[in-house]
Amino acid sequence: MSTGVFNTTNFTNNLAKKSFASMITRLMPNGQAPLFALTSYLKTETAVNTTHGFFTKTMVFPEFTINKDGGYLTTSTGFAIDATDKLLPGMILVNDRSGENIIINSVNSTTSISVTRDVGTTGPKAINDNDVFYQVGNAFEEGSQRPDANNIIPVEVNNLTQIFRNTWAITGTAEQVEVIAGNKTEAENRQDCAGFHAADIEKALFFGQKSSGTRNGKPFRTMDGLLNIVENPAYYPASYGGSVNSFTAGATTNWTQLLAMLDNVFDQATDPKSSNERLLFVGGAAKLVLNEIGRLNGTYQLMDGQTNFGLRFDTLKTPRGTFRIIEHPLFNSNASWAKLAVGVDLATFNLAYLGNRKTQSKEYNTQGKVASDYGVDAIGGTLTTECTCTVKNPPANVVIRNLTAAAQG
Fold this sequence. Notes:
The chain is an alpha+beta fold and 409 residues long. Helices cover 16% and strands 29% of the residues. A hairpin with a 5-residue loop joins strand 5 (91-95) and strand 6 (101-109). Residues 1-18 and 23-30 have low confidence and may be disordered.
């Protein structure tokens, strides 16, 4: 009970009308659009144009590799290296093999630096060709000049808004016909429409490909989905060398191979609260492979008196992080997708709706509503959503195709 004027704080939990994505979660928690449904619990993002862009940065960790046949003596102070693009005077770097620290005095060219040796307790050591040096900080003298600036060049990621539309409609006669079981025909049609709308958005979130043009003489756009973004090398830092977090499994997959495919995502810290947790959406065939890998690499014993048996793994733990396994119903719609696994970092993922074009329902001939029904003896309505997919750190996600069979190892 409350006194005074009723206001929005008086709503009990889930009494107020929810967004379409949120309602999908509540009405169909195990339905065909789990990723779209989860976006209702993420921070809302708004696109102000049909092209929605954002920038992503990946931290730079300076290093270099010696590029000199025969290496250098303990007294050498000029080094030929692979590249100097991440280096500045004043940086201290350690030889990973010998432990000697050096400090950079000047960057002479794109492949040459001058240094001071023996900056520390290890002492000067001979340097071999292909020795790798990693930065361990910087240091400057008293009264030093201001050092040069170092910048991280952001990578621009653009996507396009896509318009999704689905309609339900039944004749005025069919509306009044009583059915033996289930909801009234109108309710069934509404629910089917909602399911199709959510499924169409969900498919685009995973499998969409960006395009722009005209259709029927009018502007037309489609958006990039998760797979297309994660598998685009342009969205990865230079340190990845053109490789992406996309893998195709062999005829069999063992634990060691699976771990190698999943491990790279944990190089990216995107959420300080839970940076080592991801969702892993899988098809039915892929889930069987993951469970079989677990069974083959563990011990399973049946005890006398058991009335049930079997294994089901819903969580996959690696030395560096955790994947929550979710079997995706849409992936089971064909044999290829059934072998698919997509690791998603929710901290990097969201939907951006164009202005107020979150899912809207416009109906005709229902409860006195008329919206261009053209005199048709029927009732119906159309759901419309315009949004785009954002993945603000693609290397924190992973795609694995063709998980076919498990192996021990």
